[in-house]
Amino acid sequence: MEDNNKNLEKVLELFDRKGIEKRKQATTMAGILGIQYKSAKQKLDGKRGIRFEEVRKIHEYFREAYNKRPQYNGIFIVNDLHMRCNIEVESEDAEQVEAGVNYAYKDGEYWIVNPTSNRIHRSLKKVVNLEVLPAPRIAILDNDPEILELMKSVSNRFGIEATLFRDKLEMLEHVKRHFYDAYIVDWLLDYEENAGEIIKTIRANNAAVPIIILTAQLDQHENEIGEIIAKQGVEILEKPSRVTIISSILISHLFY
């Protein structure tokens, strides 16, 4: 309920800032989210919850980046696929594992539901409620279509939604009004341009979001890349990078 209240506060604050009169707020919300007026009115009255994705969609409609991450306390893992979720468990450890029932174990601050690894964890608790959240979103810029397709395939495999860009200017305009959970950018683009301007734009909107630079020209551009690492707090991956390395970095940033 607390998250719902915070989401409502964010929407009302945005409407107020944009000059949307109270009598027009439900109509505005209904139009943006594609829902009925009655549902929008109930959301604004606090009778129905407003989801994180709805808050982000409303902000993006007004060309504002909503640079917050959803709150979650668990990760559901099926083979390589990872899903953020909110989990409620029973207070006592499960004495035996029943077929078709989810069980969770604690790993740091997160509850982990991973049916294939239940047998190696002694302290399992029965899951009584599990809410799966939308997949984390990343934006990827590279002028090589094969690398873009590889990155999209890796992202899909691990439960990450990827938006692909081949053009620097297109991505530059996009990131000014859309927020992503992480960014992967090729350092050297067409016509000897680099990704410095995009990185600075992203960092100006969000001081903490992960930014990963891909490069095959580290030796030739060591000073430029070193400066951007120091000033903008980015990470560097040399091409060609192994899929396991890329996926491990993304999972670390986006789920744990």
From TrEMBL:
SUPFAM superfamilies: CheY-like. It holds the Pfam family BetR. Keywords: Phosphoprotein. SMART domains: REC. This is Response regulatory domain-containing protein. It comes from Pantoea ananas (Erwinia uredovora). The modification 4-aspartylphosphate is found at residue 186. One of its GO terms (biological process) is phosphorelay signal transduction system. Residues 137-254 form the Response regulatory domain.
